[in-house]
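ARCHIVE CARD
Drawer: 12
Card no.: 0347
Subject: one protein chain, sequence and derived structure
Cross-reference: see card 0346
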Amino acid sequence: MQQPRLNLPTSSLRDFIPANDSYDWLIFTATTSDVKQKIDALALRAVLCVIRLAAGGIQSIYLNSTNQGLVVSLEKSVPIKFNEATLKLLREICLFGSIEMDMQVNSLILRGQK
């Protein structure tokens, strides 16, 4: 609310910079050199942590940047299955982070809302 008065940028979106914002369990595929998908770094980090926690015992999460958005998948293309409480939490994070979430069988596609 104070952004206009303080002459702050109108967008508080902070790009995800792999060198600064990544985790040791987050594996970038070869095509993920730039994660500029209009997704806030903090919101993306929260989504990734919930996925890892819900996947229970999984060692790595894979992130790929495509023309569809950011594709999140589990190791060895394990199907992504979440209980209702986890889905609700993911939806809430995505709502507050202005992220569109599309569940696939083996992946989750994240896009910044336009």
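Annotation on reverse: Residues 19 and 49 are 17 Å apart (CA to CA). The longest helix spans residues 41-55.
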